[in-house]
Amino acid sequence: MNKYLVTGAAGFIGSKTSELLLKAGNLVVGLDNLNDYYDVDLKKHRLENLKKHENFKFELADIENIDVLRKIFENNKFTAVINLAARAGVRASIENPFVYAMTNIVGTMNLLELCRQFGTSKFVLASSSSLYAGETTPFSEDMTVTKPISQYAATKLSAEVLAYSYHHLYNVDTSVLRFFTVYGPAGRPDMSYFKFIESIKNGLPITIYGDGSQRRDFTYIDDIARGVVLSLMPLGYEIINLGGGKKPISINEMINLIEIRLDKKAIIHYKEFDKADMLETGADISKAARLLGWSPEIDFIDGINQTVDWFFQQKAKLSGTNL
């Protein structure tokens, strides 16, 4: 039976990935530090669902602490490490870059070094479409990504380069997955769509940076988690886009769909466009199709409707959570 270490297991992508692995009969050691970047109640809610599986074990730990990580590796023989623990958010990385460097760079290096020491031959790394800033869509994996426009993107690029060095030197088989705007039920409360849903429903103004024409390649959480699991196959060292793969959706289009679902108009306040933001993201996902047999299954209209439904169904159950 395979045993996987999933870091960030209480997070949005980590919890869904762990769920898929557990349902397939695998053993999962889920690691998370339960930091308060957003309300911990939501993370605990995700963990409670995972703890219903007898093959799941939770470790309260931080990937920045290599001594604690070493004890976990000593007590387990992992088939693979799936590193989904990361500090996310472009604007927050500008305000506190040191935290991002510690988690996204030092934490990744700790895990890679322990994979080397304990003979764990497979490593999956969560990366980001933010690396493609300045390139023309659709973004393909062979594009040059040496000019990150935020500390968040810079730390993600650093993690990719570290992973390559461990593949080159020690043959750690590595899948680097560049995610494109992951959304869906039980997502991070700081994501724009949750803020829009809450504010529109309550008749409160929402803030748009720029004119709302910026476009994103939204990718539904179930599709992302499925791609993560598929990437556990031997690949050598590959960077792979996981994105919606269709026409990117503008912020204005997303707001309009939420307005239709809620039957209520948004009150919009516009602010100056943030230069750390990207005008458009769009994924070339042909490599994911070729190597993994992966393509997204949930289109944006269905996905955003499911997200709105979850938001109001779960809000009462998660009282005290700042959704």
Question: Concise description?
Answer:
This protein is an alpha/beta fold.
What's the helix and strand layout?
Layout: E1 3-7, H1 12-23, E2 27-32, H2 40-50, E3 56-60, H3 66-74, E4 80-83, H4 90-95, H5 97-118, E5 122-128, H6 151-170, E6 173-179, E7 182-183, H7 192-201, E8 205-209, E9 215-216, E10 219-220, H8 221-230, E11 237-242, E12 249-250, H9 251-262, E13 267-271, H10 286-292, H11 300-315
Parallel strand pairs: 1-2, 1-4, 2-3, 4-5, 5-6, 6-11, 7-10, 8-13
Antiparallel strand pairs: 9-12
Helix pairs in contact: 1-2, 1-8, 3-5, 5-6, 7-9, 9-11
Architecture overview:
This protein has helices at about 10-25, 40-50, 65-75, 90-95, 95-120, 150-170, 190-200, 220-230, 250-260, 285-290, 300-315; strands spanning about 5, 25-30, 55-60, 80-85, 120-130, 175-180, 180-185, 205-210, 215, 220, 235-240, 250, 265-270. The protein has about 325 residues and is of the alpha/beta class. A seven-stranded parallel sheet has the order 3-2-1-4-5-6-11, sandwiched between helices. Strands 7-10 form a two-stranded parallel ribbon. A two-stranded parallel sheet has the order 8-13. α1 (about 10-25) runs parallel beside α2 (about 40-50), α1 crosses α8 (about 220-230) and α3 (about 65-75) runs parallel beside α5 (about 95-120).
Approximately how much helix is present in the residues?
40-55%
Radius of gyration: 19 Å
Q: What structural category arises from helix and sheet content?
A: alpha/beta
Listing every helix as H and every strand as E from the N terminus to the C terminus, the arrangement reads EHEHEHEHHEHEEHEEEHEEHEHH
What kind of oligomer do you see?
single chain
Q: Major sheet, described briefly? A: 7 strands, parallel
Return the average pLDDT rounded to an integer: 93
- Lateral arrangement of strands in the main beta sheet: 3-2-1-4-5-6-11
Low-confidence stretches: none
Number of strands: 13
Q: How many helical stretches?
A: 11
What is the first-to-last residue Cα distance? Answer: 37 Å
Beta-strand residue fraction: 15-25%
Shape: globular
